[in-house]
Here is the input.
Amino acid sequence: MSAENNIESVLNENRSFAPPATFSEAANISSEEQYQQLWQHAKDDPAGFWGEMAENLTWFQRPESIMDGEMPNTKWFTGGKINVSYNCLDRHLETDRRNKAALIWEGEPGDTRVLRYQDLHREVCRFANVLKDMGVETGDRVTLYMPMIPELTIAMLACARIGAIHSIIFGGFSAEAVADRNNDAQARVVVTADGGWRRGKEIPLKAAVDASLDKSPTVEKVVVVRRTGGDVDMVPDRDFWWHDLMDGASADCDAVQLDSEHPLFILYTSGSTGKPKGVLHTSAGYLLGTTMTSKWVFDLKEEDTYWCTADIGWITGHSYICYGPLSNGASVVMYEGAPNWPDEGRFWEIVEKYQVSIFYTAPTAIRAFIKWGNQWPEKYDLSSLRLLGTVGEPINPEAWMWYHEVIGQQRCPIVDTWWQTETGGIMISPLPGVTPTKPGSCAKPLPGVVPDIVSEAGVSLDVNQGGLLVMKQPWPHMLRTLYGDHDRFIETYFSTIEDCYFAGDGARRDEDGYIWVMGRVDDVINVSGHRLSTMEVESSLVAHEKVAEAAVVGFPHEIKGEGICCFVTLKDDDGTDDLKAELTRHVRQQIGALATPDQIRFGASLPKTRSGKIMRRLLRDIAAGRESTQDTTTLEDFSVLAKLREDED
Ligand code: PRX
Here is the structure.
C-alpha cells in the first residue's frame, strides 16, 4: 500500500502542557538550550558525542574507536571490552547502592520479594555458574519462556554475564511459537517455570515447553522454576528444577570481558511476512542507549521508585525493566500479574504501596483504566508519582488527557515515547523537564536521533505532510542484523528509502517540529501495543484443513487499539459459528492468545483485483464498518463485497 494513500491526518490537537517549573529545575536535562546543544552536537559529531556518553559505562577496556562504517553496517566502540551484567550489578556494589533495592517484586497472589543490588548480584552469579555447569558457552543461545518473576531478570543477567545470548519468548505465545523460535535461534537450553499467575489462573508454561521440544531438537536441557506448584512432568537428564541447581551453585562468577559488539540478545518480532524476525542487539551500544535514554526520558534519580508495567517478553521490558534502569542503579518495581486482579484497582494499590514515582505503561492499558472508571485510582494515594510515560502505539488525546488529569493529577509530565524492538531504546519523546507536551504527539528526537519524514521517493516532506518516518543517522542501540538472515535485515529496513533506516511507520511533523506518528504503513497490526503480522495470522488460518484462503486486517478497537478481522474462504464447508470457534482456537494454539481473532467472516471469495491482488484496503474498510473510498473499478467480482459486509458478527 502506498504511504500517501494510508496517511491522512485527522488529528487537530492544539493543547500544550509545559513542564512544571519545579520539575524542570531539578531535571537531568533542564532547558531547551541544553537539549538543543546536545542534539546538535550528536548530529554534527556523533562519534564525539557518543564517545563522551560512553563515559557513563564501566569498561574493562576503553574502545579504540567510537563508530566505524556506514549504516546499516556501523560497528560501535571497536576494541572496547565490556560486560552488561557487570554494568547493571557489580559496579553498584562499590557504592552505597549495594544495599539499595534493585528489584521490588510483587506476585499476582500478593507475595512479595525485594532483592537488593547485592542479592541480585549473588543470584545472577549463581545462575551464571549453573549455566556454565550445563555446558553453556559464550555465544550459545538460551531461551527464556517465563512468567514475570525475579528469576527472569536473574536469568537474563546471568546470560549476559557469561556472554550467552538470551532469546526471551513472551509467556502468551504458544508451544508452536516457542518451537519456531527455538529452532531459528538453535537454542541449547530453555529456562521456564511450572506456570505463572494470570487473573488467578495458572498459565502452564512447562507443558507448553514440553510440547515445543518435540519440534525443537537443538534444546538439550530445561531449567524449571517452581512458581505455581502446579503439576509438571520432569524428564530425567533433560529437565532440572531451578532450586536444585541453585542449591549447590557458587556465588563467585567473574563477568566475562566481551567485545563491544558481542551479541546480547535476540528478540523475535513480527514483520510483514509470515516468519518472525530475530532482532539482534549487541552489548555496548545497546547498553549505552538504554542507560542514557533512561536518564534523559525518565529523569531517573537515586531516590526514584520506577515501575514499567510491560512484560519482559517484549522489548519494553528488556530495555526499561531490566537493562536501562539497572545500569542506572534504580529501584525497579516488577509485577507478575493482571491489572484487574483481584480487582481493577491493583495497579494503583501497587503505586501507593511502594510509593512509585515514575510510571510507564501502554495506551491500551490506559483505555482499559478509563473504561473501568475513576473510582479505582481515586481509592489510592497517587501523590508519590512525579512522571508518567506511555509506549507501544499512538495515544489518543482523550486517553492522554485522562492520564494527565486522573493519574498525574495535572502535576506529572507525560512522556509519549516512540521506538521499536529494532531501535533498542527510545528514539522520539518529550524530555520531561524541557518539552511542552501535546496530547498524541511523541514530540522531538532525542540526542543522537536524526529522523525525517519523506515521500516514497525519499524526498523530505513539508510541515504537516504525512509520509514515512525514517532515520538518517546510525545510533549505538540499533539492531545489528536479523539473526541468521542479514539479507532480510537489509531488505526490510534499508531498501525502502536510500541510505535511511525505515521500519514501517507513517508520521507527520507539525509547525513546531513535533512528530505525530500515525501508525504502520505495512501489513503489521498493533494489538494492545503488540506487533502482529497479518501474514502470520493468515498462514495460521490457511494451515487449517478447511480453509482455502484467508486475508487478515486490523480494525479500530476501543481497548486494544486494533482488533483482528479475518476474511476466510472455505474449501467445501459452510461457514458455521462452530467453525468460527474452531478457527479461533486454532489460531490461538498456533500463535498464542494475543493473536485471537476478534472477527471471522466467511465469504465465497475474497475481493481481488483482476491481477489477483487482494484488496486489503477495501477489507479494512469493511472490517471497520466504513463506506469504502477505494476505487473498486478493478474489482474482479462485485458480489463478494455484499456477502462480506453482511457477515458481521
Ligand atoms: O508503530 C509503532 C508503534 O509500535 C511499533 C513498534 O512495536 P514494537 O517493536 O513491538 O515495540 C513496541 C514498544 C517499543 C512502532 O513501529 N509505537 C511504539 N511506540 C509508539 C508507537 N506509535 C506511536 N506512538 C508511540 N509512542
Observations:
- The two ends are 27 Å apart (CA to CA).
- The chain has 21 helices and 30 strands.
